[in-house]
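As a representative case, the lines below give one protein's residues and fold tokens.
***
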Amino acid sequence: MSNRAGRFAGRVAVVTGGASGIGFATARAFADEGAQVVIIDIDEERISSAASELGVDSVLADVAREADVVGMVAAALERHQQIDILVNLAGIYPRASIEEETLAGWKRLIEVNLDSTFLCCKHVLRRCASAATGGSSTRRRARSTPERLDFRRTLRRRPA
């Protein structure tokens, strides 16, 4: 874990997809600015190497699975008592053309690239809402954004 002073000193940043690519670079940037960083990834070999190289914490998890997300949030909070920053960078891309892609492959892409962002935001906000850190103000901002989709209202307007 980083003991460096910087803009994010005293803050805890959770970065999904943190074992490689943009996630790794983002985790490095937060660590360089003094944040305590927890990287989340599904690749056991890469996450171990990345965490060691960066000197940060890690949690092995599939962020497309709700149970893993709940466990990841609990592990981060157990180790650091707070989560101030969540960066959702876990993502995959299809290796096949659209003509060759399977429905199962497409569904996995949607789970990792879209559903995981929803799950991580949901469970970080749920666990941090009562904390003295940014969680409660983040939740208020999310509720007060005029252009946000109100799921309850949308469901009531559904045609029969």
